[in-house]
Amino acid sequence: MKKKILVTGGLGYIGSHTCVELINKGFEVVIVDNLSNSEASALDGIAKIAGERPTFYEFDLLDAEALDKLFKFEKLDGIIHFAASKAVGESVEKPRLYYRNNLQTLLNLLDNMVKYDVQNIVFSSSCTVYGQPDILPVTEQTPVQAALSPYGNTKQICEEILRDTVKAEDNVKAIALRYFNPVGAHDSALIGELPLGVPQNLMPFITQTGIGMRKELSVFGSDYDTKDGTCIRDYIHVVDLANAHIVALNRMIGKKQKAKYEFFNVGTGTGSTVLEVINSFEKTSGEKLNYKIVDRREGDIEKIYADTTFSNKELGWSSEKNLDDMTSSAWKWQVALREKQATEA
Ligand code: NAD
Ligand code: WQD
Fold it and tell me: What is the full per-residue pLDDT of the chain (345 aa) written as tens digits?
């Protein structure tokens, strides 16, 4: 019998890639998404790549009644909870929206897990919980720092909710994955990131500039204490990240956890500067990128990258793709999007 997994936010960027890998590895996938930051066409992309169409429920996870019905009807073996609001800047403007959407959706899921005895949940956390760490690379023992935004705070609070819930509820187990900077797209270019409006993140801004949607990329600061003066991040290919979820899920289902609540860093262990990302993009796309150095962006962290020893050894997961794989797949997706938009126009 196939194990049935509920993927919340399964039509979003990381969720859609994870659905593909779940189907590839023999899981049955049920998606809930309210399409607040995604398009239903992602379902076609998943089906085309994986050769199987997941069951899709379109509703808001804040709708406790609809969620209860789903749990009653679908006999679930586990949950991967991606659904959340994720724009850091917007969270400063609309904190209550972020606290409501990111905390209440998790609470609704946990209520139903207890009620219907669903035992396993993988949660999307973020390296944002570490702030600017004093020592690099960051291990799982690196202290969590006061959050710099309501968004970051929701990730910390959700981790605490999970930690406390597994203590109180005998059957509930959880793994939080702290993602570093997910980028890139599926190699088929059938699914990828769909940023709304002007992208705040580096990679979609680069590819949109490369394709002519944006005039030029602003590189935020060149006077940081790094090898070329630009900030360092641990960029991770979204397909590698997707696979970490399957490994985490199997760990829970196979009862291999060392504790009922565990958390792991999911990065490559390699830090890249903004200029290195630009160079890789220019190399893999063959496009010259129009960019200029501007002032630092407020609130930016100078450098962060993961120590992946614990996830490699204990979780048994490691990344396989390099920066060139990330920029080339992101570019391929951007080109495919332009072609799609041209045929739809
Ligand atoms: P995304 O916005 O592409 O995907 C989230 C999906 O959840 C969207 O399809 C959206 O429509 C859906 N959704 C949101 N609220 C919902 C609700 N109340 N009910 C039903 N559906 C809802 O985001 P993503 O980049 O795929 O991120 C997935 C998760 O990973 C999020 O929890 C995010 O905070 C976390 N994360 C993302 C990054 C990143 O840089 N992308 C980094 C670290 C952590
Ligand atoms: C990367 C680097 C910028 C845009 C954010 C969230 C974080 C996490 C991931 C979810 C930085 C530089 C960027 C541009 C630039 N999300 N940059 N010009 O800041 O690491 O993290 O997304 O949990 O919480 O804060 O990612 O992609 O915005 O920036 O020079 O137009 O690119 O300064 O050094 P960041 P990013």
Answer: 999 999 999 999 999 999 999 999 999 999 999 999 999 999 999 999 999 999 999 999 999 999 999 999 999 999 999 999 999 999 999 999 999 999 999 999 999 999 999 999 999 999 999 999 999 999 999 999 999 999 999 999 999 999 999 999 999 999 999 999 999 999 999 999 999 899 999 999 999 999 999 999 999 999 999 999 999 999 999 999 999 999 999 999 999 999 999 999 999 999 999 999 999 999 999 999 999 999 999 999 999 999 999 999 999 999 999 999 999 999 999 999 999 888 887
Q: What is the whole-number distance in angstroms between the Cα of residue 196 and the centre of ligand 1?
A: 13
Which residue has the CA at smallest separation from atom 4 of ligand 2? Answer: 202
Dig out the tokens for 314 from the structure. 């204990």
Per-domain boundaries in the chain: 4-184+236-266, 202-232+269-344
User: Which residues are CB-contacts of 326 (< 8 A; sequence separation ≥ 6)?
Assistant: 183, 184, 203, 235, 236, 237, 280
Whether the domain at 4-184+236-266 and the domain at 202-232+269-344 fall into the same CATH topology: no
pTM of the model: 0.98
Strand 291-294, strand 217-220: pairing: parallel
201 C-beta closer than 6 A to ligand 2 = yes
Closest CA to 325 of 221, 253, 220, 238: 238
Answer CATH for 4-184+236-266 from 3.40.50.720, 3.10.580.10, 3.40.640.10, 3.40.50.300: 3.40.50.720
Q: Tokens 């003066």: give the residue.
A: 229
104 close to ligand 1 (CB < 6 Angstrom): no
Ligand 2 centre distance from Cα of residue 201 (Å):
5
Residue nearest to atom 34 of ligand 2 (CA): 231
Class of the domain covering 202-232+269-344: alpha beta
Q: Is 297 in the pocket of ligand 2 (CB under 6 A)?
A: yes
* Pocket flag, ligand 1, residue 245 (CB < 6 Å): no
By alpha-carbon position, which residue is closest to atom 13 of ligand 1? Answer: 83
| Residue among 49, 10, 21 at smallest CA distance from 248 | 21
What separation, in Å, do the N-terminal and C-terminal C-alpha atoms of the chain show? 44
